[in-house]
Every structure is written in C-alpha cells, then in structure tokens.
Amino acid sequence: xxxxxxxxxxxxxxxxxxxxxxxxxxxxxxxxxxxxxxxxxxxxxxxxxxxxxxxxxxxxxxxxxxxxxxxxxxxxxxxxxxxxxxxxxxxxxxxxxxxxxxxxxxxxxxxxxxxxxxxxxxxxxxxxxxxxxxxxxxxxxxxxxxxxxxxxxxxxxxxxxxxxxxxxxxxxxxxxxxxxxxxxxxxxxxxxxxxxxxxxxxxxxxxxxxxxxxxxxxxxxxxxxxxxxxxxxxxxxxxxxxxxxxxxxxxxxxxxxxxxxxxxxxxxxxxxxxxxxxxxxxxxxxxxxxxxxxxxxxxxxxxxxxxxxxxxxxxxxxxxxxxxxxxxxxxxxx
Amino acid sequence: xxxxxxxxxxxxxxxxxxxxxxxxxxxxxxxxxxxxxxxxxxxxxxxxxxxxxxxxxxxxxxxxxxxxxxxxxxxxxxxxxxxxxxxxxxxxxxxxxxxxxxxxxxxxxxxxxxxxxxxxxxxxxxxxxxxxxxxxxxxxxxxxxxxxxxxxxxxxxxxxxxxxxxxxxxxxxxxxxxxxxxxxxxxxxxxxxxxxxxxxxxxxxxxxxxxxxxxxxxxxxxxxxxxxxxxxxxxxxxxxxxxxxxxxxxxxxxxxxxxxxxxxxxxxxxxxxxxxxxxxxxxxxxxxxxxxxxxxxxxxxxxxxxxxxxxxxxxxxxxxxxxxxxxxxxxxxx
Lengths: 334, 334
Known about the structure:
The structure is a homodimer. By secondary structure, chain A is an all-alpha fold. Chain A has helices at 3-7, 11-18, 20-33, 41-50, 57-68, 75-98, 109-112, 115-135, 139-162, 170-195, 200-224, 239-242, 248-255, 259-270, 278-288, 291-309, 317-331, and strands spanning 102-103, 106-107. In chain A, helix 5 (57-68) packs antiparallel against helix 6 (75-98). The A-B interface holds A 36, 38-42, 93, 96-97, 115-117, 119-121, 123-124, 126-128, 130-131, 134, 137, 139, 142-143, 146-147, 149-150, 152-154, 156-158, 160-161, 175 and B 36, 38-42, 93, 96-97, 115-117, 119-121, 123-124, 126-128, 130-131, 134, 137, 139, 142-143, 146-147, 149-150, 152-154, 156-158, 160-161, 175.
C-alpha cells in the first residue's frame, strides 16, 4: 500500500462509505439470522468467521446494484445477507475440503472445532440463506440464486477432480472459476438489479459485470498465491501449490513445459511429491515462460470487460464506483 | 417377516403399487437432475447412493398427499424428487459426520471416494433440490421447504453437541429427531397437500401426520440399532453405541441408572472408552430398567398420533394406506 492509495480512498472504501447505512442493516440481519435457539455451536462457529471481517464485497455488490436502480424497499438487505451467508457456507465447506488451517489470518473453524461442525454449520447457513431469499417473495430472484448455487457446487466438484490433473485446460479452469467464484458475484449484482426492477438488458449488464469481476478477482487471487507478479513471496503463498491445484499460472507453465519441467510438474502436482524449494522452483519456471505475466494480462482483460459491460447502463455515482472497483481488484497485482 | 405379512401386501408396497406411475416419473426426474454436464464425479457418487434403492418413503409421502387431494398437475413429481434429493444430500453429509463405512448394505460414498466428494456432491444435490422446488412457482412450498431445511441442519448440529453428553434429556432427543428426521417427513406430506390446493386445516393435518410418523420412524430406528425389542442382535446394530449417541433407550436407561450403571455409561458414552462386551452390557442394563420397552411404547404412541391426525381429513383409499403405513412403521419392533 503506498501513500497515494492511503490519501485517495480506495473504491471499495468509497462504496462502503456510500452504502454504510445499508451495510449496517445487513450486519444486523446477519447477526440475527445466524443465531440458533437450540444449537449454541452454530453462532459460535459462524461468529468466528463472520466477525473476522472479510471485505463483505459480495453483499456490497448487491446493495450497489439495487441502489443504482433507485431501489427503496427493504429486500436488498435480505439479498445482501443471503449472498454473504452462501459465501460463508461455501468457505466452511471449502476449508474442510482443502483441509485448511488458516482463513483471514485466524485458525479455521474445522481446526478450532471439527470438520463435522464445519459441514453441518455450513448446511445451516445455506438453509438460512434460502429462508432469507424466500422472504423477498421474488421467484425470479429465487431462480437466479438456485441456479447460482448449483453452479457453485458443480464448480467445486470440478475443481476437486481437476486438482492434480496436468491435462486441465484453461477452458476447464474458467469453468471452475465461474463456479467457485464468479457465479456468486454475478448473482449478487443481478439480484440487486432484479429486486430494483431494472430492465432485462440492465440486469444482463449487471450479471456480465459480476461475472467478469469475479473471474478477474479469482485470477488475481491465484496469482497472489504464487506471490503475485512481484518477486517477494508473501506469508500466505503456496497454498494452491501444496494442494496441487491447477490454477491459471500453472496451466500456462505446464502448456509450455520442456521435458525437464514436465517432470517437475508431474512430480509436484500430479504425484504430490513435494520438497523444500519446490515452490520457488515452480515460480522460477513460471517466470521463465512469462506464465505469471500472461495470467496477469488475462486478469486485466477480464477487469476491462467488467468495466465495459456497464457501458449502456444509466450514469450514476455508483456505476463509476463499480468501474473503479474493477480496476482496483486487478491493481493488487499491477 | 412372517407368512401373514408376505401374503397380505405391506402398506408400503400397496402405496408403491398405487403410485407406480408417479414414482416412475420421479425416478426419471431424479436421474436427469442428478446428472452434471461438467463434473462426472457427481453422477458417480449420487448413482451409488440413489441406485442402492432405499424405500423412497419420503417422495412417496409427497405423491400420496398430492393424490389424496386430487392433484392432477405435474409438480408433485418435482416436489417428490426435491424431497429425495434433500434426503440424499443429508445422507452424504451424515456419513462424513458419523465417519460411517456402510449405508444400505454397501460401502459409503466417503469411503469409496472421499469426504471431500461427499461434502461437495451433497451441496450439489441440495442446490439441485432448490432448483426443482423453484420450478413449482409456489412461494408457500418454498417457504415450507426452506424452514424444513433449517430445522434439519439445526437438528444435526444439536445431535453433534448432544452426543456423548449424559445430561441429554428426552426433550432434547425429541428436538434432534424432529430436526434430523421428522422435519423432512412433515414437509414431504405438507407440500403434497399445498401443491394440491388442500385447505389450511388439511395441510396442517398432513404436517402433523408426517411429524408424528417421522418421530415414530426414528425411535424405531434407534431401537433397532440396539437389536430392537427382541433378544437377537442384528448385523448392523451398535452403530449409535459406538458413535456415543444419546438415543431414547440410552436416555431412559441413564435416567434410572444406579451408581455402577452410571459409571458404565460415563465410561462408554461420555468418555468413549469401549471394549468387547460393552454393547451386550448396555442392552442388559436397558432390559433391567425396561428402557427398550418404554421407548417402544413411545414409538407406538407417536404412530397412534399419526393415525389420529388424519381423523378429520376426507375419506380416501390413500388415507387408509397412510394409516396402515404408520402402524407398519412401528410393526418392525412389535
């Protein structure tokens, strides 16, 4: 973070400031709905995760889309809380699947309690999200979120079977990313427009924005897991390598590998036989082929698509912020 | 099974025969909707579970309730498939939580594939069920199933925290059972009535029937896990004891335990220190206090409540079958 960024407020913070009242209502609703009268384990686990903060990016997208189209009713709050609950449920199940130990700088729920609690509390949050969206009374919203849920689950299973498989293509990667990340981003923006009564073309633009933003966001995340475009390896890098995930920079490096490099990927990713120095070696191979830079260009291209998708929507203060947000998401690897 | 039961068709089989056309349509829909274009692991896992059979009791309840009120539309099929998907998703997650190795006489999915697949494919089936119910276009149905989902998840978490805890009361047990079993039974019958346009009083009766039937069903299941009321220990008994679950016969035995018996329960259930012969010893203690017989009486009482709840509904061939079904469910321990 440089001084410039500190002085000029980040797009995320400007959106948060503009939507502060709504976000407060969302937080109140999240706290009320994650409670359970009968099973105290539930709020313990969810509080651990929800209170840890996170950027609340997804619910903010729903609020922003609804406000951009002048929504004055109460249900954008329900939908924003819905989206955050689905996200949190997914994180709980992801941490079980990935056998993760840390999330947002804290020990994961599966480590603090157990896998059982993470599975069942995830199910609980998912069903709570379902109750919240039913309350909006909008079948169109329910349809969008039901489809998004299926896409998310399908993407997660696809990622599971694609892991360790060096034959994974960029097309499969895109499908995984659309599932695990972009589906919830695009549903978040789309339902915000739908609840506000935006036209079909406008909700389509909101969907496209969320879809492209989600893909850019995930590519950046996958790049940062290898230390980003910079030379410095961050504290939390290497998770994907250890979990043998075929993320974009790896796929690009594998596609151009010579015999020796192929043997390296076969040993570390396909076989999972990893030793000290392998992560640095993976990065060196990627650098040699410009794999990180190529992935970075892909992220920038998706961010540009996110910006462009809002071209034909009405001018609005929030629209400018959403465009800035797309630039900002990829600025993390600029 | 005696000759009498073989000669006179069982209530479950008579219902199945009457609803054969509908059940066929449900099976076709289940097969179509559990497929995934992108992730072949999904149909592998679900087929393993769905094709294993099971009694399809829950979807049959939905079909029966809808037909009892003269429903002629297509959506009872969607709802029956929905209910079976929710049930299957719950089984997948249960087997992860219980670390089960066998289900319906076959190795569990978590054993054949891995816990990850069971968690994620369960999520997929749950979201598919969500899509199916949205297609019915009935917000009331969605409300009922959303609430049932939350009750199920809450019951599962409650069971997790109540396990190993000798202070678990019959009231807590009932809450767990209402969640893990009865909530889906009562939702299955209720949505069948709702989709058929039954009156509020009639759908309430259907709910009460499903609730009482589900509780009776689970108490019987829990009794059979200790070998039922007979002296013979069946092949699949002892799972609950090994998992240290506080089921009804155990709760009743603990409530009347003397000092020595209390020490036995504290060692085997609370501490989980179990050795050969402990299961037989548990059964002997239960027999001494009539705990099995008392739990059996509770099951019979819930079955009677199920039968009585249909008193004020119109006469119908299916109504008689549903009443017979309630008797049959407890006849397994008669």
